Amino acid sequence: MNDFAQQLREELDELHASGRYRTLPMLAGGGVRRRLAGQDVLVFCSNDYLGLATEPVLAEASNQATTALGTGAGGARLISGNGELYAALEQELAAWCGYEAALCFSTGYLANMGVLTVLAGADDVIASDALNHASIIDGCRLSRAEVRVYPHGDVTALAGILRAASGARRRLVVTESLFSMDGDIAPLAAILDVARQHDALVVVDEAHALGVYGSHGGGVLQALGLGGHADALVGTMGKAMGSAGAFVAGSRLLVDVLLNKARSFIFNTGLPPGVLAASLAALGMLRTDGVLRRERLLEHARRLRYGLGELGFTVGGESYILPVILGDSQLTLTWRDALLEEGLFVQAIRPPTVPVGTSRLRLTVSAAHGAADIDCALEVFSRVLRRLGIVRAIPQLPP
Ligand SMILES: *Cc1c(COP(=O)(O)O)cnc(C)c1O
Predict the structure, then answer these.
(1) Which of 21, 32, 167, 334 is deepest in the core (most CB within 10 A)?
(2) Which of 109, 132, 237, 247 for a ligand 1 pocket mutation test, highest count of atoms within 8 Å of Cβ?
(3) Ligand 1 atom at shortest distance from the alpha carbon of 244
């Protein structure tokens, strides 16, 4: 083997040794009932919280747009990839979350890159929650601002960082609202207060909350009566909206600046018409039967959380994202494999996605599940617990 191949091999060996090696699961079918490597599985690790990804109304809208307009945008939006679907979608998204305007990006990853690099630069300080998503971390790094990480949800520490940054040109706070791997919610009212006191901008990533929190699914800020209060809201359409893509909502001024300066917007091909049409249809579905789907989702979450607690597991958070924190990566993999043998597909989330020592099974429920599916999951957990014996969830380590 040549040197380079040898180096690559060693890198993979290291991942294997630390329980961090990843492989792609080969899934067939859609929704919560699929086949994984030929085996029937019940999926408990999808972010399609409201079951909209397999909703025929979305597929119909997507098919129509594809037939009429083609499969691809054909270019970046500032060149030839823009169209009326984009305008309609952006207008609806802005109104939905309580903002003047919105700008779509192809993914949430690119949206965070865009908004953070445009709002912060070398003379600025970004205060970032310790558990923020990788796309936020990378956006912070790419901005070249000085990044100060505050302990998860710690507003006092955040205030300290902002106070110490009074000499910076600009201060910016960035946080998720509903945290993707922990299922808990940032103290947004307190964060907005502290930010205002220190003249700091606030960016809130509502990727996992949109569609569920808020009177019309417009997010946690909206649920708290703070709709439109953050300077920018990042949302994605690949999760509860069952489609793909993302957006940044804010003032018209902000959107104009993003459109002119965000490189992840400018140098990126527009989304296919079918995807935009599916997102528009998702917003329509949320208006007609969003409440029903939300209630179903939350009832499933309650049932699963309660049942896992009864079995003795420590379940983090307070939402439809249910992290069962086991600590050790290998142990988490053992659990994942044992659950899979029984037909339950749950992912093992390990570093670097989560901090070292907090590896976990991350269960998510969906409105596409039935009550019997939740009972089935609990039954499997109970059986695996008996089989693996001693294994008990340990309390979450402090971040
Ligand atoms: C999923 C996610 C993203 C990235 O969105 P994509 O559209 O999948 O690129 C960004 N932020 C958070 C908090 C996420 O969970």
Answers:
(1) 32
(2) 109
(3) 7
